[in-house]
């Protein structure tokens, strides 16, 4: 039974321009952490991620949601988590503050993720193992498919999961091989050209075959110059992604993306405002065959559905610490699977739990095992940090979702 | 110069099921109020509106934004409000919590609206008068048109306002006539059929020629029965609107809206989730010629742009206490004008300042003077409440935006 519920505002200033992008020049990587203290002695830890200011507001909202878990049995909660998710996300007064977006939804992510963590710890298995061992029906019982009825009914979600069962064994070797990573920390926005060049070499030496550069400068020539540096150092076979962090408007994006074609980017990420589905659809047509990736700022399954319907993005970067937690991450992954679009979650080791979720997506849902973002700056703060060796995530073996923070160790 | 800045969390419980709809059964109408105390002795008051829980979080966020106004001169701020709006709405850490949506954006509305109120008081005129006396260039200087470049450049916004200047005089009589209202309080969700019938009669007797019923019952027959009651009492010539408050999914909406055609609704409002642009576009086609209205939960100009581009709604209900205040309300109104879609703001007297904004939209922008929502439950709490006589809003004459609350009177 869940007894005490604690919420903590934990912030980690970064060093040396790490984390900087075209929009966010001086972030303080922060977590709004929910901990569910179970009378078994186990503690479920979940969080949402923010850039500092306002992290306390996410905590306050998480406190409000968290109260609903008091005295609940985690197995009972998770047997029909769909119900709790609907109840919390549609709280009739809190709903006005979204609905299903912004601070209240970040708070829901924190609470939801704590539930999944406690569930996995209670069963004594890592989260990926818990999830792949659930039946399709048990998975669907944890999801809220409201407002998706035009694209994904409960029956269709079940069928989609069942259809993947016969071929699961073929995908299990990923557990031994590890899930590929890609390196985002070669080219933060404020890094000098020289540092970008150095970091590229380092990433290659470490075994990465994919890496990402921040673009979106006021001066597009800077973007183009730096992109060429990365391509030059990386060589023609490495996947190079470019991330504009919403910096361009549509006419700018069309112009600059066409220029960036010359370095053959694997994708261009967040070219413009994350609410602008139509602009992304127009852009995708205007710059084909260059592909778009987006999703780190898309707050819920409904907007993901609109993006998928519009055919605007070739990669969906849903983030379990932005949407309503693991539950909605799985919902969005199912939608993506239906539309044949790969899921490449935003933040890997920074989000910690995505290393579990991509394994589930691959094994149980048949998603391609593409790669997972690697941003190491917060690794040192976790009890069980993600381990990336030779450019590959080692499969986590400790029970839970790997989200316990050293600073909050009981 | 702006000295002290105070933020207040003000909540007004309602009586007798007033305010209830299909989603929000027991709201506590609340304001997150920003007051800018000028050294001239004047106080600018602005607010965002919520349904109670979490109103304190909007206040906290408004405090953060409000600090930026300390020691500023309001005329200087407003001469280029575009800059302040961009600065606040893109605060690099707070932005992560939206961007441009949810609690942070509600807070921005509160602060923005206080600026406009102080500006009008400083000039000793009601807000509508201040706004219609500004030149097109001065108006555009208060707007942030970022991410709208594909539909509305600064030059196009200027042209649009200039094009309306020669015919302004023809639209000035609205000031003497008053702006028509429509009555939303005939049919709150939890009202009995008998009370709905009585309220309809009362509204007709008061002079209203348009009224709205809450629908979205689990049992669609209840909706249909009550809609027929309203049509029967109102007669064939009164405009009857139906408001589902997001209760239906798309397949349900198609089915039920087609059934509700029989009462000839003037519009059907918020049929499904406010983030679902595609669903509204599909629905609009499926139920034509019945028209859709939406916007009370649309948080920003970018999503409005997407709705307008998709041709899904025939009426846009932008709300200056939901989007980033008066500034973004005007931006969205310009977008609507470009697309030929009328603006019918969410909440009239409850929002108080909309009575000013519809006069501006009509006179300076050439928007049709359709009607403005009337929800009287909070009138008694205002120093200068909206006056609706014979179904018509009397033009406010007191300086400012009519948003001062009795409970916060200096």
UniProtKB/TrEMBL annotation, chains A, B:
GO BP annotations, alphabetical order: amino acid catabolic process; carbohydrate catabolic process
Matching InterPro entries: Enolase-like_C_sf, Enolase-like_N, Enolase_C-like, Mandel_Rmase/mucon_lact_enz_CS, Mandelate_racemase_C, RHMD-like
PROSITE patterns associated with the record: MR_MLE_2
Protein name: Mandelate racemase
Domain of life (superkingdom): Bacteria
Cofactor: Mg(2+)
Organism: Mucilaginibacter gilvus
Domain Mandelate racemase/muconate lactonizing enzyme C-terminal: 193-290
Signal peptide stretch: none
Keyword line: Magnesium, Metal-binding
Pfam families, per the entry: MR_MLE_C (PF13378)
One annotated GO molecular function: hydro-lyase activity
